[in-house]
Amino acid sequence: MSWFKQLWQNSREKGQYYELQAQKYLQQQGLIPLERNYNCPYGELDVIMRDGDTLVFVEVKFRASNAKGGAMHALGKQKQQRLKRTIYHYLAAKKLTNQALRIDFVAITGDSAQQLNWIKNVF
Question: pTM of the entire structure?
């Protein structure tokens, strides 16, 4: 296996692990999981959940340390635009109209003593 493919696979596994941690945390807060890792040509939706009648799209970011702002500063404008296009694609593919929705952000920082921040309605 090439070093690039191995790096990508390790990164993907790490991403899935932290997405699952975020999902478990949100379930403890009363949200109901619907789907994970929805892919389309525009990008990926990490976690999709329901909070009452509201469809919640959750972007999860992990950073091992607070260097360069940590996970809290990992959701830039370009990622926000890509996320919006992916959500529109999801809604169209599932034929969901007039659906209340919200975009949340879960930032996880630190390998051992993890700090999890949940920001509702991030943008």
Answer: 0.88
How far, in whole angstroms, is CA 91 from its chain's centroid? 16
Q: What is the pLDDT along the chain (123 residues), one digit of tens a residue?
A: 565 555 445 777 888 999 999 999 999 999 999 999 999 999 999 999 999 999 999 999 998 887 777 777 778 889 899 999 999 999 999 999 999 999 999 999 886 667 899 999 998
Report which of 76, 78, 87 is spatially closest to residue 35, judged by C-alpha positions: 87
The residue range of the domain holding 51 is 3-119
* Cβ(100)–Cβ(55) below 8 Å: yes
Q: The CATH number of the domain where 12 resides is what?
A: 3.40.1350.10
- In a 3-state reduction of DSSP, which class is residue 123? coil
The count of structural domains within the chain is 1
